[in-house]
Amino acid sequence: MRLVATKTIHEGTELAKAIYSDTGRVLIQKDMKLTNKMIQRLQQLGITYVYIKDALTDDIIIKPPIPDELRLEAVQIVKNSFADLQTNGYQKHAYIFSRVSEKMSKIVSHIIDEIKNQEEVLSILSDVIISDDYIFSHSINVTVYALALATELGLPQQKLEHIGLGSMLHDVGKVSIPEGILQKKERLTDYEYEIIKTHTVEGFNMLRKSGTIPLLVAHCAYQHHERLDGSGYPRGIVGQDIHFYGKLLAVADVFDAVTSNRVYRDALLPHEGLEILYSGSGRLFDQDLVHAFRKTIAVYPNGITVGLSDGRSGIVVKQNKHLLERPVVRIVKEFGEEIIPYDVDLSNLLNVTITSCHSTLENSLK
After folding, report:
1. Which residue range or ranges hold the HD-GYP domain (predicted)?
2. Residue 55 needs a FRET pair 20 to 30 A away by CA distance; which of 14, 67, 82, 102 works?
3. Are residues 84 and 232 in the same domain?
4. Domains in the chain: how many in total?
5. What's the CA gap between 307 and 61, in Å, rounded?
6. How far, in Å, CA of 122 to CA of 220, rounded?
7. What is the pLDDT of residues 99-158, one digit of tens each?
8. Is 318 part of any domain?
9. Each residue of 331-347: pLDDT tens digit?
């Protein structure tokens, strides 16, 4: 299967992975031949990338970082919990957190187990589950990324559990933000942006007063927008004053934000998201955490099309876990000419580099 941009697929393309709603309902079945109407609907739903069937890559298997069933359950728990918090007054928040914290903790434990047993690095968390609110899927994506980073660092189980729960609840304060601002497609005014920024304090206060959520978990909500140079919010604190969890969440949060589709821009590819982190490494984000995070992510995910420095182009078929910038590539063209496909392992060809990465059907293999 291949990973391609939805805006470049054409009628008759076969879907290689099913698309679900966040309630678990199948919106488009695997193996379905897409019609123009379906493709238009996918674009309207904000689906940036899809996996499609392709004769050259039938043997490429994309294993999700966590099973779709687990992700669906996690999204639903977050969605229901946030809805309860939004519709009930502050006096009931402690009751709601006591009811959902056990469920969330179990989900976090399952995600930790999946990540620890994952042989491959994390591939892109593509839009296979459609939620009616970005916050829900974002909360789960950040949880997966943060736990993958924390696992790479070798943190003990209790810290993994705290980070997982804190990641799942890091945006809980947004239940207090007016929907009109959260869902606004146009650029926010300065006033609206100031309101958005209050979600960190609101979330912190909700969690610290819950009676069932550890204070360190509350700090994930409080500090995930702080930056090393003091340019973050809500307090503008600097490096040594930011809790380790806040620094870790900042990396996972920004990476998912830029590699997810938003109402005002398309998602970036993983190598582009990592470049954003590296551009702020040591200034905005902890350098060691960014470096460790890079070891957990497929820079060029399986199924993506790449161009090489020697004029060849092909499709990534396998990762080299300890040399992620140099995957195994199935060469399908040489200097723009189609050839009989063959695989090359870039870890054995250090004089050849990836010079471009594409997700379009029209231009990717030219």
Report:
1. 113-309
2. 67
3. yes
4. 3
5. 21
6. 22
7. 888 899 999 999 999 999 887 777 765 555 555 567 888 899 999 999 999 999 999 999
8. yes
9. 999 998 999 999 999 99
